[in-house]
Amino acid sequence: MNIYITQLIYIRAGEEKAFDQFESIAIPAISKYNGKLLLRIRPDKEAIIESSMEAPYEIHLCVFDTGDDFKNFMQDEERKQFLHLKEQSVRSVILIKGKQL
C-alpha cells in the first residue's frame, strides 16, 4: 500500500542556499526508493486564506510504495553525507504520514 509523506518545512533565516543544496541531493534520491515527489510548494502569504500557525517555507508531498521504502530513503548513504546542510538550514519539520482514501 502506498504511503504519503507531507512535510511542512521551516528554515532558518538566511539559510536558503544551504537548504537548496541539501534538496538537490535529497529529492533525486526519492526515486531510488520507489518514491515520487508529487508537490514542492513555497506558499505565498497571499495564498493562505486562514491560519492558526506559522506558514512553512516549503511544503513537500511525496509518495512511496511502502513504509519500508520511505525508511530506506531516510537511511540513504549519500543523503546522510549531506545532513549537515539540513541541520544548518532547517529549523523544524512537521512530518505527516498518510494513505489515499
The Cα radius of gyration reads 14 Å
Text of the CATH class: Alpha Beta
- The backbone outline, from C-alpha atoms, is globular
Strand order of the largest sheet: 2-3-1-4
**Structural category:** alpha+beta
Major sheet details: 4 strands, antiparallel
Strand content: 25-35%
Instruction: Give the ordered list of helices and strands.
Output: EHEEHHHE
**Fraction in helix:** 25-40%
Number of strands: 4
Residue-averaged pLDDT:
96
CATH architecture: 2-Layer Sandwich
Alpha-carbon distance between the two ends = 11 Å
How would you sum up this structure, described in words?
The chain is of the alpha+beta class and 101 residues long. It has one domain (3-98): Alpha-Beta Plaits (2-Layer Sandwich). Helix content is 35%, strand content 32%. The protein contains four helices and four strands. A four-stranded antiparallel β-sheet has the order 2-3-1-4. The chain is globular, with a radius of gyration of 14 Å. The termini are close together. The mean pLDDT is 96.
List the helices and strands and how they pair.
Elements (H helix, E strand, L loop, with lengths): L2 E9 L4 H15 L4 E7 L16 E7 L2 H8 L2 H5 L1 H7 E9 L3
Antiparallel strand pairs: 1-3, 1-4, 2-3
Q: Can I get a quick summary?
A:
The chain is α+β, with helices and mostly antiparallel strands and 101 residues long.
Which structural traits does this protein have?
101 residues, alpha+beta, Alpha-Beta Plaits, 4 helices, globular
